[in-house]
Amino acid sequence: MLAAYAVRADADEPLAALAVGEMDPPNVPEGWVSVQVRAAALNLHDVWSLRGVGLPADRLPMILGCDAAGVADDGREVIVHAVINSPDFVGSDTTYDPERSLLSERYPGTFATQVRVPASNLIDKPPELSFAEAACLPTAWLTAYRMLFRQSGARPGDTVLIQGAGGGVATALIVLARQAGMRVWVTSRDETRGARAVSLGAHRAFPAGARLPERVDAVMESVGAATWSHSINVLRPGGTLVICGATSGDNPPKAELTKIYFKPLRVIGSTMGTRDELISLTHMLVATGVRPHIDRVLPLADAAAGFAAMIASDHFGKIVLEP
Ligand SMILES: NC(=O)c1ccc[n+]([C@@H]2O[C@H](COP(=O)([O-])OP(=O)(O)OC[C@H]3O[C@@H](n4cnc5c(N)ncnc54)[C@H](OP(=O)(O)O)[C@@H]3O)[C@@H](O)[C@H]2O)c1
After folding, report:
1. Which atom of ligand 1 is nearest to 310's Cα?
2. 187 DSSP β-pair partners
3. pLDDT tens digits, residue range 65-96?
4. How much distance in Å is there from the Cα of 164 to the middle of ligand 1?
5. Which residue of 64, 101, 169, 175 sits with most ligand 1 atoms within 8 Å of its CB, as the best mutation to test the pocket?
């Protein structure tokens, strides 16, 4: 089968670690099912994998990709929940499983014509969503959904600042927060991307690090070191910072500990989401009509072009691959 996979780790030249070619389909263990992939979506996670972050050499070669929508063996149109939990995990919130992994970390990922997953990782794809739209949901959109609606405490009418306008998580946050009746502010390093965020639903866009007209109720952080101090400074007393990533580095020049306890703020980590939250997300999209913003759709054979765009931040929204 055709697949895009990591052959080695290259921290400086991640594209050099990518191969696209034929591979044998993986075995399907007892209790797992095979899905014919119709669309898969890129995430920055896939670039981290090529750089060797979270993907040790003894697991290579590894098919990349967390997100997919496709057709199961029984003909069902499905979305693949990307979080593979330990069968021994006990508890309702599966994001707390210390043994969890994402597809492409321990088990082959979705950038292939077929992917195999535990049967319980499939949810129904609503007919209202295209395969490409559905493929955007399991990582970026699910993460955004949980950050906003479970972790942030933000309510309709509250002001939410989203750091970094153009990424997959950021564009999902913009659309979901706007739909939920929040006042949506974004920052971007790039004026054009800020303007595109406004056309997507943000009320205002500001340059990265800008002084804001007033303090905000919640900040959605995925940029990390480059925006950390700004995120702490723009929050109102009692506000909430939800963090799901650290694209620019995880060691900010100032930790801002005094401001965090003195204001006092809530700082909450968030990662992916549960299967039930993924189902709720699909219901929200069907009920509201909102859809993921897709930057481009490429054939799987051209996966390198998608990776190159993501590495250069030359994308706005999601990049989708079709086998
Ligand atoms: N914990 C989880 O479950 C989870 C799930 C999904 C993603 N993540 C993490 O979230 C982050 C974003 O993922 P993604 O797939 O949305 O990536 P992406 O599509 O490549 O987006 C990257 C974002 O970062 C901003 N950015 C990048 N470098 C920056 C810098 N130096 N200064 C300011 N802004 C910068 C960009 O905004 P502008 O270019 O507009 O400024 C853009 O919004 C990644 O670190 C990823 O690992 C975590």
Report:
1. 20
2. 163, 206
3. 999 999 999 999 999 999 999 999 999 899 99
4. 7
5. 169
